[in-house]
Amino acid sequence: MPYLVREHLFIGNISDAAEILQKGSTEITHILSVLSSASISFFSEWRGFEIPTKEIKKVYVGASGGESGSEDDSGDGGAKSSLSPEKILYSLEYAGQDLKLVRMAVPLRDMESEDLLDYLDVCLDFIDESRKEGSVLVHCFAGVSRSAAIITAYLMRTEHLSQEDALESLRQSCEFVSPNDGFLDQLKMFEEMGFKVDHANPIYKRFRLKVLGDSYNRGEKIDSSKFGADPGLPTKVVSSEGEESSNGEINSTPAYRCKKCRRVIALQENVVSHIPGEGETSFEWLKRRSGNLFNKSDEFQCSSIFVEPLRWMTAVVEGALEGKLSCAHCESRLGYFNWSGIQCSCGSWITPAFQLHKSRVDISTV
Ligand SMILES: [Zn+2]
Ligand SMILES: [Zn+2]
Q1: Where do the catalytic residues lie (predicted)?
Q2: What confidence score (pLDDT) does residue 79 get?
Q3: Whole-prediction pTM value?
Q4: How many angstroms is it from 289 CA to the middle of ligand 2?
Q5: Which ligand does the CA of 306 lie closest to?
Q6: What is the CB neighbour count within 10 angstroms for residue 244?
Q7: Interval between CA 259 and ligand 2 midpoint (Å)
Q8: What is the 216 CA–ligand 2 centroid distance (Å)?
Q9: Angle at 347 (CA atoms; ends 355, 209), nearest 5 degrees
Q10: Which of 24, 194, 271, 354 is the most buried (most CB within 10 A)?
Q11: Which residues does the annotation mark as catalytic?
Q12: 330 alpha carbon, closest ligand
């Protein structure tokens, strides 16, 4: 039986969902399925029965057009989701007896390395909408990790609770919930970003780079769509409204240039900041120095800046583990990269690391 968490909000496992999809429910009107596959065939493969469905829509990662979350992405150019562009974000369908239920399904595996953050906005919005129209069951396979992580995030956002308090509150309804450690870390980031997934936030940028590093270490080929655009090229970018604008029109964006030939090699938005001397897993600094990323002491202690991988980094695009970073125009040495990490002069380990020596670059505005 599903457990009641809040009015019109339940948590459960796959059996709970299967029963409602087969027999209907007097109370539940909406289902949020969080399984390794978004397809309804997951149920038939699991227990051998068919569930009638009628598709409402399928939304892929990176699809623009009014979806929550994607609006924020268009404004800041280099800020990207860590999900692959062709991956399904969610599907929405009518399901069950007389197609009376509305089911949203997101494909998410119960693994520490799985990217939970990028699904939160759509899941939490769906829960909100569903509770206005009826009651919603959030379920995964066991009802322990994935569904619990999403409901924890929901309680955090709606009740402004810390990760710990939200999880504790959920345990009052269902004592055995236990999101995996990777999800707990991501929920902490969600809290530190102010209960939203902000792609321009340094916390998210570091997370995105870590996801990229994990996938490189698993031997997956990193598609160049995952790399930042080359800020030295006069590329046209299409905004969400479909209007074209060029990078040159964006005024007073801080930019890093090759000291020798002045080619633009990185924009401020490409920089993945760290706090001098602190370990890569620490996010505590945001509380102390929020918005103060150009702190004088940073300049003093760190002899390098670290950026996301960019498309002018030929050796990176070719898949090397480590190597030199040379200017795409004059070929002078700018820095070094290593997917396994580099230690900054301040002592912090940056993993993976795409490092530009401050002595080789100038900062100015575009
Ligand atoms: Zn440093
Ligand atoms: Zn150069």
Answers
A1: 140 (phosphocysteine intermediate)
A2: 53
A3: 0.80
A4: 33
A5: 1
A6: 9
A7: 7
A8: 28
A9: 45
A10: 354
A11: 140
A12: 2
